[in-house]
């Protein structure tokens, strides 16, 4: 059972990994690092230790005793489902690291929306390849300050879907042609690739 947890994972906006050392599962989701502790009902709790010795009760403001992790399958996808205080929090897709289609490799770069919203649209859009998935980074002060990012998995030569389960997950981004140039269709926008 422990072996089935091992692998790389991506939620909508976070990358992570679960590794196994004998009977211990270590999880690392960006700034969150912890061990998965099995229980008799198949649900895992989490534990974190300072300097590998002293148990901690929190990760930031999160109480570790309230975090539960399950491995589930949904429509052929392997997922880690994370609950906090007995309520669904988020899910992360297990990544299979299939080779990227050439169409997505050549699509990597900087983009600009050509049918922008007069009230504001994402800016400084970049499509990158990161740890086996596509990363779309952007800025949009209407949504939040700083740089946003989401992760997508290519499912064909021209389509990729956002990772995870839940709100904004499972959305499709398509490669399109915009007046002979590479482009993306996403969020209702036409997004044209800028020259390198």
- Report the principal-axis shape: elongated
Class by helix and strand content? mainly beta
Instruction: Walk across the major sheet and give the strand order.
Output: 6-5-4-3-2-1-11-10-9
Strand residue content: over 45%
* Biggest β-sheet strands, sense, barrel: 9 strands, antiparallel
Number of strands: 19
Over the alpha carbons, how many angstroms does the gyration radius reach? 19 Å
The parts where pLDDT drops under 50 for at least 5 residues are none
Q: How much helix is in the residues?
A: under 10%
- Domain count: the total is 2
Q: Topology as H/E string?
A: HEEEEEEEEEEEHEEEEEEEE
Summed over residues and divided by their number, the pLDDT gives a mean of: 82
Write the layout of secondary structure elements.
Blueprint: H1 2-5, E1 7-10, E2 15-21, E3 24-29, E4 32-38, E5 44-50, E6 54-56, E7 58-59, E8 62-63, E9 67-74, E10 77-84, E11 87-94, H2 102-105, E12 109-113, E13 123-130, E14 133-140, E15 144-154, E16 159-162, E17 172-178, E18 181-186, E19 189-193
Antiparallel strand pairs: 1-2, 1-11, 2-3, 3-4, 4-5, 5-6, 7-8, 9-10, 10-11, 12-13, 12-19, 13-14, 14-15, 15-16, 16-17, 17-18, 18-19
Outline of the structure:
This protein is mainly β. The chain has 2 helices and 19 strands.
Protein architecture, described:
- This protein is mainly β and 196 residues long.
- It folds into 2 domains: 2-94; 102-193, Lipocalin (Beta Barrel).
- The chain is built from 2 helices and 19 strands.
- The chain has helices at residues 2-5, 102-105, and strands spanning 7-10, 15-21, 24-29, 32-38, 44-50, 54-56, 58-59, 62-63, 67-74, 77-84, 87-94, 109-113, 123-130, 133-140, 144-154, 159-162, 172-178, 181-186, 189-193.
- Strands 6-5-4-3-2-1-11-10-9 form a 9-stranded antiparallel sheet. Strands 12-13-14-15-16-17-18-19 form an 8-stranded antiparallel β-barrel. A two-stranded antiparallel sheet has the order 7-8.
- The longest helix is centred in the N-terminal third of the chain and has 4 residues, at 2-5.
- The protein starts with a helix and ends with a strand.
